[in-house]
Design goal:
Blueprint lengths: L11 E6 L5 E7 L9 H18 L11 E2 L2 E2 L33 H25 L1
Antiparallel strand pairs: 1-2, 3-4
Length: 132
Amino acid sequence: MINDKHCFELYGFDIMIDSNLKPWLIEVNASPSLTASSESDRQLKRGLLEDMMDIIDVEGRLTGDERRVGGFDLIWHDGPVHNEEIALKEVTPPYPTNSYLGCFNDREIHRQELHRSLTLAKIIAKSGAAEK
């Protein structure tokens, strides 16, 4: 693996969930197929690619303080990202986090909010540049 901040890799994880809802890792694919075999598969993979491009942030629009980007939750940032309602110093591992770990995905709403805030920031930056 090349250690270059300008590169990234996408891995595919095959997970099976048993009758007790325990996840089992079946395999990790270094080159997962992005070919869709159905409409729902196409929507899933398109969402994955949209979220991946949001995370990569090629245009440098994110602040670095986001706790969620697309359908992904930040769960570690030089320490666990915790629930704001509980002071981290009051708890011990396992830490309560803000992550839904894939159980709840409001990615479309989140992407709209992110787009709205980034558009507003762009308008403010343009108006500030116009005043100078």
